[in-house]
UniProtKB/TrEMBL annotation:
InterPro entries referenced in this protein's UniProt entry, alphabetically: Class_I_gatase-like, Divisome_Glycosyl_Hydrolase, GH, GHL6
Name of the molecule in the record: Family 10 glycosylhydrolase
Domain of life: Bacteria
Pfam families tied to this protein: GHL6
Transmembrane segments annotated in the record for this chain: none
Natural source organism: Ruania alkalisoli
Molecular function GO labels: hydrolase activity
Gene3D superfamilies membership: 3.40.50.880, Glycosidases (3.20.20.80)
Annotated keywords: Hydrolase
Length: 716
C-alpha cells in the first residue's frame, strides 16, 4: 500500500508543532480531550468540503479534540484495502487527512470514526460470509437504502476487514484513537452458518429463535454475545496499539457503558466513555444530560465521560439530521452535561451547512466550559446523598431491555432536584463500604432482588450510622408465594403481602406527628400510590414511627360509593431511628413512579422530607431561591465548588427549550470545616470575587442573576 509522500511528510511535521498541548500522543492523551468536535461526512462532502470553515469552528469553540469520519462503511481517505468502499466524490482528495492535519495544527487530539455495520452490493457479492442473516438464512437488507446489507459482527468482516481498516488509518495518519459506531450488529441473532457452528461449539446449544423466548439457549446466547463482543473490543484495541502504543480503539457505548460486556475483558480497554445521547425527546426533562454524567460516575468514578450532543433535534423515530435545534436547547444540553461531569461533544452530520445557527450556541457553551474547566475539571464530585443505580433483571434476549422501572428513579430524581438536594449515583455492581464513604443517605427508588452481598453492605452502612430511604419493592426477593423484604429488619417491618395493584383512589392518612409530615398542614390524608405492598411492624423493632397509614381500599365509582369504610391501619410510610445514629425510611408504595407519572406535589414533598430527615442535620450545601436548578458539588484540599445550573424554562419537562428565564435572588450556604473562621469566594462564570458572610460555621454567598450557569468557588 502506498500513500503520497507529500501527505506523509505533512503528518510527520505535526509532531513537532510548537506549543503542543501537554499529553499529546501519550498513553493518557484522553485526559486532555475535554471539548470534542465531531464531523460525520456524507458521500458528497469531499466535493464541497470547506476545511477553513471547520478549522475556524474548532478554533472559535476552543475544541481540543476531533472525531472525524474515516472509513468502514465508506472511506473518506484514499484507502488501499480491497472492498473498502470509497466515497463516490473522493477523487484524488483526502478530506480526512486534511482535517486531521488542521486539527493537529491547533494542538488537538484526533479520533478516527469507523462504521462497520453495513456494506454495499459489490462487497456483499464478493464476501457473502460477511452478511448478517435472518432465521431463514437470508441476508438482512438495510432498512434505509436499497442495495445495502447488514454485516454479522461475529464474521471476518469485523475480525479481519475492520481490523485492517483500523490498522491502515493508524499507520498512515496522526490519530490518537479509532471510534467504532454501530459496531455490534443488528438487534437480532445472525443465523450464518459460521456463527451457528461457533455458538454450538462454545455452548452446546443451537442458535435460539424469537418464536421461543423460553428456549434455554437464550441465556446462553446473551452471555456468548456479550463475551464475543468483548473479545472484539480486545482484538481491535490490541491491533492499533501494536502500531502506535498510545493509540486506542474505543467502540461506542450507550448509557450502559460496559455493563452489558464482560468486565474482566474490557475494563482496561475503555480509558474513557462516549455516551451517544444526542438530544432530548418525548417527555425527557431538562436534567437528562446531567444524569448521564452522574450515572457514569456511579460506575466508573475516575474515568472521563463525554456526552455526544447533536446540533439538531432528536426525537426517536423522527429524524432531521440536517436540521438545527433551538440555540437555548443546544446550550442547555451542553451546560447541564458538563456541570455534572459529562464533557462536551457536539456532532454535526454532513460537512456542508444548510443552516449555520448551531455554530454560535456551540461556541458559547464551549467557551463557558473553557472558563469553568480550571475549577470543575480538577475537583472531585461529592455529595451526602446517593441513588442506587440498579439495572434490574436482564431481558430474555440481549436486545430486550430490563422490565421498565425507569419511572421510579425519574420521580426520585425530579423530587431531589426540585428540593435542591445535591446527590450522586452508586451503581449496584459497585456497591461497597468504600463506595459509600462520605455518603450519609442511600436512596433505593425501587430495587428488588438485591444480592445477599448488597443487602449486607447496606445493613453494615446503617449499623455504622448511615441512613437509607427506600420505596416500593426495594429489597423484595424470593419466589412467588414466599417473598420477603430482605431489608425489613432494618426498616422495622416484615412483608405480609406482595405488590398489589394497579389501584385507583388509594390514600394514606397522617397518623403521627413527625418531620415527614411537614408541609401537609390542613390535610388529614393524601394520595398514596397505585402499587402497594402490605407490611406489618416488627413488634421488637425499636425507634419506629409510622407517620402515614394506608386507608383501606374503597370504590372510585359510582360516586355515591366513594367513601372509606374502615379506619387507616396498615403502615404506608415507616420511619426508624437506630441506635447507631442512622435513620431509615420505607415507603410501601411506588412513590417515585407515581410522582413521575402524575407529578402530584405531595409525593415530591414526601420524597424530599424523607431524605432531609434521614440526613439528621442540615446539608453541607444549601442553595436558596426560586426556580428549577441542577446542583453539583465538588471538593479539593481547602476548597469547595458549587455549580448552579439554571433549568428554569417553560419547556423543562418536554421538548426543545425555547427560552431560558434568568434566576435572581439565589444564595449558596456551605458548612465549613471545624475551626475555619474565614473564607474567600469567586464566581467563576462572572469572573469576580464576591463577599462571603461567615457565621456559626457556615459561609454564605449571594449570587447575581444567573443565565445558564454559575460556579461558586470557595477557598479557605
Amino acid at each position: 500500500m502506498t500513500i503520497s509522500d507529500d501527505r506523509r511528510t505533512a503528518v510527520t511535521l505535526t509532531h513537532a508543532q510548537p506549543g503542543e498541548v501537554i499529553g499529546l500522543r501519550t498513553p493518557e492523551w484522553y485526559r486532555g480531550a475535554t471539548r470534542w468536535t465531531q464531523l460525520t461526512f456524507t458521500d458528497d462532502d469531499p466535493a464541497t468540503l470547506d476545511v477553513d470553515f471547520w478549522i475556524d469552528v474548532m478554533r472559535r469553540s476552543a475544541s481540543n479534540a476531533l472525531c472525524l469520519s474515516a472509513g468502514g462503511y465508506m472511506a473518506f481517505y484514499p484507502t488501499q484495502i480491497p472492498w473498502h468502499h470509497r466515497s463516490a466524490f473522493l477523487g484524488d482528495t483526502d478530506p480526512f487527512g486534511a482535517l486531521v492535519e488542521g486539527a493537529r495544527s491547533l494542538g488537538m487530539h484526533v479520533m478516527a470514526r469507523v462504521d462497520p455495520h453495513a456494506i454495499h452490493q459489490d462487497a456483499a457479492d464478493a464476501h457473502p460470509e460477511w452478511l448478517a442473516r435472518d432465521e431463514d438464512g437470508q441476508p438482512i437488507p438495510h432498512g434505509s437504502v436499497p442495495g445495502l446489507w447488514w454485516t454479522d459482527p461475529f464474521s471476518s468482516y469485523h475480525t479481519e476487514f475492520t481490523t485492517e481498516v483500523a490498522r491502515e488509518i493508524v499507520r498512515e495518519y496522526d490519530v490518537d484513537a479509532v471510534f467504532a459506531n454501530r459496531w455490534d450488529g443488528p438487534r437480532s441473532v445472525s443465523h450464518t452458518e459460521a456463527t451457528a457452528q461457533r455458538f454450538t461449539a462454545d455452548t452446546g446449544f443451537a442458535l435460539p429463535r424469537v418464536a421461543n423466548l423460553n428456549d434455554p439457549a437464550w441465556p446462553a446466547y446473551a452471555a456468548w454475545h456479550s463475551r464475543r463482543l468483548s473479545e472484539l473490543v480486545v482484538l481491535w484495541d490490541d491491533a492499533v496499539r501494536e502500531i502506535k502504543p498510545h493509540v486506542r480503539f474505543i467502540p461506542n457505548r450507550g448509557a450502559a457503558l460496559t455493563r452489558d460486556l464482560v468486565h474482566e475483558l474490557v475494563d482496561d480497554r475503555y480509558p474513557m466513555f462516549f455516551v451517544d445521547k444526542q438530544g432530548r425527546s418525548d417527555l425527557e426533562p431538562a436534567w437528562t444530560p446531567g444524569r448521564i454524567g452522574k450515572r457514569a460516575r456511579g460506575l466508573y468514578p475516575d474515568r472521563p465521560v463525554a456526552l455526544i450532543t447533536s446540533v439538531g433535534p432528536e426525537h426517536h423515530e423522527l429524524r432531521w439530521k440536517d436540521s438545527v435545534a433551538d440555540p437555548e436547547e443546544t446550550k442547555a444540553l451542553v451546560v447541564d452535561g458538563f456541570a455534572q461531569g459529562a464533557l462536551p461533544w457536539f456532532t454535526k452530520f454532513k460537512a456542508e451547512n444548510f443552516d449555520d445557527r448551531w455554530v454560535q450556541p456551540i461556541v458559547d457553551a464551549y467557551r463557558l466550559h473553557e472558563r469553568c474547566e480550571p475549577v470543575i475539571g480538577r475537583l472531585r464530585y461529592t455529595a451526602e446523598v446517593a441513588i442506587l443505580d440498579s439495572r434490574g433483571t436482564a431481558g430474555r434476549t440481549p436486545w430486550t431491555p430490563p422490565p421498565g422501572r425507569e419511572a421510579h428513579e425519574d420521580g426520585v430524581y425530579q423530587a431531589l432536584l426540585e428540593a435542591r438536594i445535591p446527590f450522586e449515583y452508586v451503581a449496584d455492581e459497585a456497591l461497597s463500604a468504600d463506595r459509600l464513604a462520605g455518603i450519609r443517605v442511600l436512596v433505593l427508588p425501587a430495587t428488588p432482588e438485591l444480592t445477599p452481598q448488597q443487602v449486607g453492605v447496606i445493613e453494615e452502612f446503617v449499623a455504622a450510622g448511615g441512613a437509607v430511604v427506600a420505596a416500593h419493592d426495594s429489597s423484595v426477593r424470593g419466589p412467588a408465594g414466599s417473598r420477603e423484604l430482605a431489608l425489613g429488619e432494618i426498616f422495622g417491618v416484615r412483608l405480609r403481602q406482595d405488590v398489589r395493584g394497579p389501584l385507583k383512589n388509594k390514600y394514606m392518612a397522617i397518623t403521627a406527628d413527625h418531620p415527614l409530615v411537614a408541609g401537609y398542614e390542613g390535610a388529614q390524608r393524601i394520595v398514596a400510590g397505585s402499587l402497594v405492598l402490605g407490611v406489618e411492624q416488627i413488634p421488637t423493632a425499636e425507634g419506629v414511627t409510622v407517620p402515614f397509614r394506608f386507608v383501606p381500599d374503597y370504590p372510585d365509582l359510582p360516586m355515591e360509593e366513594v367513601y372509606p369504610r374502615e379506619a387507616p391501619h396498615e403502615p404506608a410510610v415507616i420511619a426508624r431511628e437506630h441506635a447507631s445514629g442512622g435513620r431509615t425510611v420505607y415507603v410501601a408504595f411506588n412513590v417515585g413512579e407515581i410522582y413521575w407519572e402524575a407529578l402530584q406535589s405531595d409525593h415530591g414533598r414526601l420524597i424530599a422530607n424523607a431524605v432531609r430527615w434521614a440526613l439528621a442535620d442540615s446539608p453541607r450545601v444549601q442553595v436558596a431561591g426560586r426556580g428549577l436548578v441542577d446542583l453539583a458539588v465538588q471538593e479539593g484540599e481547602r476548597e469547595l465548588a458549587v455549580s448552579v445550573v439554571n433549568l428554569t424554562n417553560p419547556m423543562a419537562m418536554r421538548g426543545q427549550a425555547h427560552e431560558l428565564i434568568p434566576l435572581t435572588g439565589q444564595s449558596v450556604r456551605m458548612r465549613l470545616p471545624e475551626g475555619v473562621q474565614e473564607a474567600r469566594a469567586r464566581l467563576v462564570v462572572a469572573g469576580e470575587d464576591v463577599p462571603v458572610s461567615v457565621s456559626e460555621g457556615h459561609a454564605e454567598v449571594a449570587l447575581p442573576a444567573i443565565d445558564h450557569l454559575e460556579v461558586v468557588h470557595l477557598t479557605w
